[in-house]
Amino acid sequence: MSARLPRKTMTTATTTDTEKWVCVGVRDPLTTGSRETAACDRCGIEIRWVHVLSRVGGNGVSQRLSTGGCCAARLVAGYEARGAEKELMNRASRMGRFLKPASWKVSKTNPANVWRDCLMPDVTTRQVTVIEKGGLYGVFVAGPKNGDDNRCPYERWADRKSAIEAAFIIVDGVRDEMKARLVTSS
Description:
It is built from 3 helices and 9 strands. By secondary structure, the protein is α+β, with helices and mostly antiparallel strands. It folds into 2 domains: 7-80, no CATH class; 98-185, no CATH class.
């Protein structure tokens, strides 16, 4: 896994530029169905987790780098690459559990609808329902019983699987909001 690319494919970012670079995302090339591994734009080493860095140069032109965790940590001040990779792994694990068909129950009032409960970071439970109406599917995420923070996007999906995947994105966003509130309130 330590193969290096030819020198000409590498960039010349230096570690003295740390304040200018920001990480705009982390991705795993293997989850996109690609069998190819990625290579760090900075050092050329073969990498599993791609940290996408961005900065605006002195001439106003935006620059992007796809780097490994070590190079990302060197270029971005205060960036914890391993933590970002761990969060990506945790999200993939949560998504796998969320999408598992056994965790979804068929509605008693309308068999075309499915629902499940989700435990949130503040220890409340939210009910997520995928609703079929007119051949399209919608998502409804109920707020806590003592509040009214319901989520019901206007988008509709052509099949149940796509709606359930969208429901995960909505619930994961609610989880992120709750975690941020819990951190700021403590």
